[in-house]
Every structure is written in C-alpha cells, then in structure tokens.
Amino acid sequence: MALLYITRKEHFNAAHQLWDSNLTEEENFEMFGKCANPNFHGHNFDLFVCVKGEPDKNTGLVMDLKILKKIIREQVTDELDHQNMNLDVSWLKGQMPSIENISIAIWKRIVPYLPVGVKLHKITLWETQNNFVEFFGEGL
Ligand code: NI
Question: What is the pTM assigned to this prediction?
C-alpha cells in the first residue's frame, strides 16, 4: 500500500520572552536578541502538522483533515492564541518558550488524539518569515 503525508496548517498569535535567569542581561540579549525584551513581545506563528498513513480503501483519505483541524485547535491553537506563553499556558510552564520547546510540547499534545493507523510525522513551526523549526519526534 502507498504511504502518504498530509498536512494541516493552523495559525496563532502569542507572546513570549526568552530569558535565562542564569545569564546576565547582556548575555541574554547576546543569546536571544529582541526575544529577550523584558516586557514580552508577540509573533504570528504558523503551525504545520504533518501526519502519515495509507489512504482508506473507501474514502481514499489518510485522515479527515477536518478532524485533524479540530485536534490542532482544541489541543494547541485555542490554548496558545493571544496568550503569553511564559505565563498563561499550563503545558508550557517552567519551559523556555522557544519554537523548539513549543514544537516538542505540541507533538506530545497531538499524538494521543490521532486515529488508529495514522502517525504524526512532523511538526513545523514558523516564528518569523525567516525562522522555523521542524520536529520529527526524534529523541522523545
Ligand atoms: Ni520572540
């Protein structure tokens, strides 16, 4: 059977600050640039959730993308949209809200809700027009 990869894109706006309390102010700005600004700042995040599976014999679909949309919104974007990711999101508490760490957390939140036979393949999270992260679940 053929194995295919399908992707749903979702979007959210959220605020964060990247700050390591073990570093000096100068070192923080050296490491994180404007993302270290003390009073938080926002990004327009684009999230791509890619799953893989074989198309169903009857429907021809790997998975109903309406269902994937619902999972992403309920588990991730409704929770993050217009929130401060340092302060407001229980499942990001105690973590540096970098796109790396956010992607790992998103992976863990989506996996339990996928239908039988469908596997999460990749989380892609764009923070700016130039910077994005891809996570394949490796090392979990
Ligand atoms: Ni930032």
Answer: 0.95
